[in-house]
Amino acid sequence: MFGKQRIIILDNMRKYIFLITLLSSMFLSTAIAQTAAQEETVIELEEIIVTAQHGEQRLLDIPASITAVSGQTLVNANVVNIEQLAGFVPGLNVLVQTPGRPNLVIRGLTSDEVSPTAQPRVSVYLNHAPISRATMAVAELYDMERVEVMKGPQGTLFGRGSQAGAISFITKKPTDYLGGYVTAGMGNYGMKHLEGALNVPLTGDGLAARIIGIYSYRDGYVKNTSGGTLNDKNTLGGRFSLAYAPQNGKFRADLMVNYQKDDNAGTAFISKKYGEADIFKYKTTLDEDKDFYNRREVFGAVLNARYYTSAKNYFSSITSYFGNSADSRFDGDGTVAPAIDMAERVRAKQFMQELRYDFSYGDRLTGIAGASFWREHVNHTYTFRPGEQYLGHLFMNMLMEDAWQEDMVVNNRPNPMLEFPVGALMEAILGIPIEGAPVLPLSNDHVEDNYTEAINRAYDLFFDASYQIIPKLNFTAGARATFENFSITNRATHVAGSISTLGFLSQRLPNLFFKPVDNPERKESFSAIVARAGLKYDLNDRSNVYAGYSKGRRPNVLQYDSEGKYDVIDAETLHSFDAGYRIVSHRLIFDASLYYQLYRNFQSWRWEGMDYLQRNVEKATSYGAELSAKWLLTDYLHIFGNYAYAHATFDDRDNEGYPQLNAGNSFRLTPRHSFLAGFNAAFDASKNIRITLTPSYAWKSRIFFEDANDAGIEQGAYGLLNATIALLFKQQRLTVSLFGSNLADAKYLIGAGNMGAMFGAPTLVPGAPRMMGAKLTWQFNK
Description:
The chain is mainly β and 782 residues long. It is 11% helix and 54% strand.
């Protein structure tokens, strides 16, 4: 399958690249002719100021691998979600099956959070406050100032959940002018988009407000022949910001309140084995009369306050609260047979208080020192409604496979097994006839729950500083001490309906998946220190080289299996070595980095019978290279691109020389090669009309969806071609933009394995086909 798919993708890629090259050549020829006589510079390539380390700094001040994407870049390329953003950041991969479970991957490490005590490896920050859990991650990108992605362990600077790196979203702040914008859009698949922002100065002494709202809708691109569509989008969001910066310059405070609600249809989990032979027909037949959905509601508030003792010395306080609820119901077997009807509910609340002192002594020493407190309350519920008359086919996969497939081909649905033939099963297992074995009726109304609740706390002390040893050589070092306390409770219950007949086989009666238990609260405390150190040498005022070491840590995980047994997984540690070269000028921004990473007690998730559990793999290694560049060729054209190579695998042997779990396998969701290439061209067609064109092509090599690297649960190489063309009417302050994503209509997966993998029948989730649309934006100022 994947070989043929790769050929098709490559053929389409050549065809569409040729087409876009031809159109671009015509476009640029016209641009050259009409721009030659003009004095106005149409495009500017300016360095982005970042706040990832010690206050506001230039990229050249950061002795580590960092990628900053400006808000203007997001607008030019019509980057509206975090999946699209990933293409602009080498080493970052994002796959989203549902809004409640985005997979954020940096340099091979993904943000798995199956247990409520599990902390993500990739930390997500909004206006410098930790969102931490990926279920709360920013899904819709609008009114952004910039996005900063720090790669490698960032525990010293960012703290919790930043073992692999940190993604920091910085929204636009209120300013002292009256103005804003309104955007309306439409497109295929019933797309509708409304967005608007209003910036208002409230007083003459530095008090201003900014209000933003967004509504984004699109029909699902997978048709459910049982009714409706799947994989749609229905998002409503808003943000209120308040800034106070009095003229005396001694104090500044910023308040941001953010809200987003997703009310989507369910995810298209499709069984290729027992359902659709070609999932890229974008249709499936799931359970009839079922309401599948993905619902999420996120609320957050962040208060940043600073008191300046001098221009570069100040005390700061960050106070944040984030809460979310994520609910989903899905067809776990991916067929019309009501075998596995599942629901998942996650509730999470987080509070963080950080006090910090940013200091600078002369021109040689800068740094930060501070303390923080973080608390999280999470509860997680799985609900199973198995239709045992159909699920029995999966339990007896070896015996019933031929009959199941024949029924699916002929009748498009399996005939239910109204009774469970215990004798036939025992005969198959033991190899001898069983006389007088019972035949038991199978349930179709059984309901069971598994509920886990956790309270996680952490107290941190941190210090990080840079010192100029000689005029061109800087040394940076820092450390963070963390003291953690996790508590967890778990219970599983038979909620309603008949007892599970198949529970005789799973030995979890009266349930099928989770043995009824009511476990008491368990508490564990841990402590750790992470650190970093590095050198940066300035070759000149526009370029430097850097090298460093950092230690990352993912905390211990408290978990229960399906029988209610309690287990504590050891903390995962990462030793990372980086080196890089960076140049920042008015016409070129270039970054190249190499890394080598050693893992101990790698936390890997895998199916074990009827459990999806976290297990330690003693040793793993990754190394790679990342390149990114923006080059201003002329005043009307700049090109951009990046490339990442990641060799991330589990070692063959453990610490004692024995073969270990997943030996030689690649990390999940990690392409060996990936790149993005594109350009932004602009010219003035007249004194009033400016035209811009921004195409990009993002490509990834093969990825596996599980650390076990199971055959068939993988995606071959593919690429996505996106483009945006915009016409700006200067006098009217109107912009008309046309955009398209996946213009080559590549066929690719965003998920594979899932619940069906437990029974040897993995489900697949297709990625979005070609999407196109148009937007009209009006900007207004006083």
